[in-house]
């Protein structure tokens, strides 16, 4: 069973054109599947990465003028009892039995596509960006087809991926490709081209070659239209106008494949009422928190825009568009040009126009343009500019109203991706033309099986004003309730070390981890610091146990009120410490969960923090979860009082078929004095064409009363020209 694994050794598989009609049924009874070359001898990636996989997989490929076909035989030790969280599209690969393919058609080891299918025929697709370091972004949806067939101790599958769904260059006869398989019953992840266990299986540095008998032809020039019609009925009992309102709506999304690698997306009067709600959190931090983008228009090639800066210094954050002062504003339309010009160049242009909202917001235009050049294998140089322009362009005093940010970035990735680095320099300006609008940063991570070390520094000027960005630490609220800015420099490092137990049947690995952040002003005057040290244990059954200690010295520049308490804390530094214990069962079992308990000093008092999640998956048709967050603030001086904040959220997913879903969220949040009900019915009656029925209700908790409600009926239909 033992084998020698050499990472980076090139594997290859040939693909030939077939004139045979392939019936997509998962049975593999076409002649081409018997004669096609096989990708086999899969290697474990987890729990060991030096052994052949126990659950072997055989993969075959062929194509015709319109489709890339992939077939696979997935050997297993079970019969019809596979692990699947639901029948809903875009499942999570690590917690579902599945087969996946990763395609790097430009061989740049930076961007690509992924397509996966479960033993129940559920599809998953997404974009691989930044080399696959963080896996697959499944918010992108493409048109493709898959069917499976279950037999005793194995399941087979067939995929048909239209060439106009892929992005590639017509004269390339070699692509990079890899296949992955997850068998949760054996707790085994395996790949065709070996991937070390400390890397995500989507990492494009570890791929083999797909050798075409002749280069596939580009399908550029196709146009997809997706018009929608919607009707919303709502009532806001918390406002002065409590009338029931009915609002019909309609619009269209269009996608033009200018080439097979470059797209133009256009949206007119988009409606995002069917987008899944955010999972709420209790926020006791001094700074704003962010939620991920879920709106379809902003997602394809989003790494060109959202990947700018880092998670703490973002010059562009798409969720700023369509919101002003916490109120929603209507998007009139937008366009996005994104993709590859050739093997070495990518471009992105996003322009969105919002409507004026009386007494709330002006009509505004949001523009972001990026260009990316591959300079080394897997490394890139990026330049960008963002601009927010209000209309009218001048106010009554003749003052302009705009905000512009520009910058350059370099992303480095070593050949085997064990070193990943980034450096950036940004400058922001607006109609006030203030100084000190710079921001810069540099970071590097070194990762092996045992060692993971990160070093970084960020510096943000007081006037790095990015109206389209996300820089939470820059902003504070003064004693008059005004937003003010404070420059800072953050020095940060974190890391971990793993001790592996190869002969143990219980423990996979264990080891220490740490994190440290030091904040100063730009003149190096101390602001604050925080430190975390801990010990992590990962078990062979995929469960984990973690213990940690946190120590911090947060600074308050102004009076700060902690949610639920009766008085504000005075400016100054405050010593805090926290002990945490966390446990995760993993998601292999039908009933699984995780939990964290923490206790320690919070400003002038104490905090008990309890967070937990419980999931139950009786069959693939159903998934039920409960999330709990309880924050108890006590032992403060009498003037502050005490507070107990509770958030309970439940999610119910019923999959009647692979195309018919019902999802319900319930969220009870005492911090926001709100009880939210969101239930959504979705019927995908043909590819990329859906019918939605969404109900949203919000209630005050004390006293319990209706705040507002809304019913939405929406249908969209996709067709190609």
Structural commentary:
The protein is an all-beta fold and 721 residues long. The chain has a domain at 12-212: Immunoglobulin-like. 1% of the residues lie in helices and 54% in strands. It contains 2 helices and 47 strands. It has a 24-stranded antiparallel barrel. Strands 1, 2, 3, 4, 5, 6, 7, 8, 9, 10, 11, 12 and 13 form a 13-stranded mixed β-sheet that branches. The N and C termini lie far apart (53 Å).
- Oligomer state equals single chain
Provide the low-confidence segments as ranges.
none
If helices are DSSP runs of H or I spanning 4 or more residues, what is the number of helices?
Answer: 2
| CATH top level assignment of the domain at 12-212 | Mainly Beta
The span between the termini is 53 Å
Rg for CA atoms: 26 Å
**CATH T-level topology of the domain at 12-212:** Immunoglobulin-like
Estimate the global geometry from the Cα principal axes.
globular
CATH architecture of the domain at 12-212, by name, is Sandwich
Number of strands: 47
Question: Helix amount, in percent?
Answer: under 10%
The description of the largest β-sheet is:
24 strands, antiparallel, barrel
Calculate the mean pLDDT score and round it: 91
The chain-level structural class is mainly beta
The percent range for strand residues is over 45%
